[in-house]
Amino acid sequence: MQLPSPASASAQALARALHITITAADLLERRGYGDVEAARRFLDPKLSQMTRPDAMADRVIAAERIAQAIRTREPTVIFGDYDCDGITAAVILTETIRLLGGKVTPMLASRFDGGYGLSDPALARILEHRPSLLITCDCGSADAPRVLRARQAGVDVIVIDHHLVPPEPLPALAFLNPHRPECGFPYKGMASCGLAMSMAAAVRSALRVELDVRRFLDLVAIGTIADVAPLDGDNRAMVRAGLEAIRKGGRPGLRALASSARLDLARPLTSQDISFVIAPRLNAPGRLGRPEAALDLLLACNDQEAQVAARTCEEANQLRQEIQKTIVAEAEEQLRALGPRNAYVLASPAWHQGVVGIVAGRIASTLQRPVIVAAVDHQGVATGSVRTAHGIDIHQALGACRELLLGFGGHAKAAGVTFRIERLADLQAAFALACASQDAVEAPPVACDVLLDPHDDPEKVVRDLARLEPCGEGNRVPRLGLPGVQLRNVREVRGGHLRADVDFGRYTLGVFGPNLGAQLQTLTSSKVHLVGELRFDTYRGGGAVEIKAEALVDG
Hints:
CATH architecture of the domain at 59-214: Alpha-Beta Complex
CATH class of the domain at 59-214: Alpha Beta
Oligomer: single chain
Radius of gyration: 25 Å
């Protein structure tokens, strides 16, 4: 275990200037916020300091076209992807057009009828509504053939997306994507929901009417966090404000969803509340069937509508959990039968296509091996999700197996794949060989950001570190190190977890080590180096602090 050096003199000076603990100041300095003003701006992000959107390519064209559609009440379709980013972006633009007097129909992609993006079946559904304007949300960048067909059918198309831009030109009337080479908007990390809110502001300006787009910040927080967009810059300001908006409970759908999930809105919310409570429930209907329940929930105008939709989302999530548990158990049986390998391909006709991606991620993380988990339809076609480990480029590995596949797509870390089930054994061997031919990278040890400074009150440190929220991509939850501390009251508790106490200066901290109970047998000393997350001990209460240990070694 490699621990960082103690806080520098400049970090101590930063702590005095900001009136924060040395530990928090040390962390800020190491993350590039050593300047007092930069640190203040990071700790207290303001919407007024966000990047001006003027240089965003096609923003004015798109706003004027949407404004025209609102003025003349043209039939407009908003089409979003089936995940949280696509759903929230679609809701933002649907509400915007409705509030400003336009005529709009929201629609979502389906995993089971066309799949991701503006597919052929999706376009057919859209054209049934005979729109004159189509706005895609969180998809469309790679859908040039369908965009062209829509335009040939007399539909103007505006694409709002943040995915990578293919080299082929997109025949859309307007194409909002910060990753376009010609887009001068300097902040590239915005998800589609953030772009949708920016477009709402642009339409408001084009119509010269009043519309407070801050009403959409709750949706932007959900879509941004769920899509694992970087929580820095503009995203940090929007998500911080959006989490507070969710907590205030202004949107009936989110209020009902929080109630059904037993999420306490009386306390400050974190990105983990979105990732593990709200997002899975919004995604669940689309994983099992039709995603429109999530759309209905977020668009609900009153508590009665919201409670009905929230119940649907909650029931879908519970069913998803049950299905996932069954698939994991059956996948583990296949893993035992296959024995140790460099990579795995697992498939069954009993598995649900909408859940295999979650299972693949869990298995890859647990075994630290690349894995394909696939559901097989009645025609013998296996549709699977692929996840990686140890730096293996699974897109490259799938390319080496292309003769055994019906198709694949994705990137180095995650992909989708289809194949005939009768090729399973051949694919298992070929995929393992392709992954073994790459140089695997050893999983890095648990990274320690800073040492808990002995001069700090741990309770104040926890409160200071809470100001780093929202934590996530690009701003991970801080890991603190406690070097050479003496464990007391050490025991292994139910579930194989470790419990202990540790004295740190004049303070006593609790220690909770998930799945670290067995490691007690390997320690040769009661003094250890600890790395983990410092947090309040809700069991003890009264301001007690514990470290959720991720690693410990002899000190």
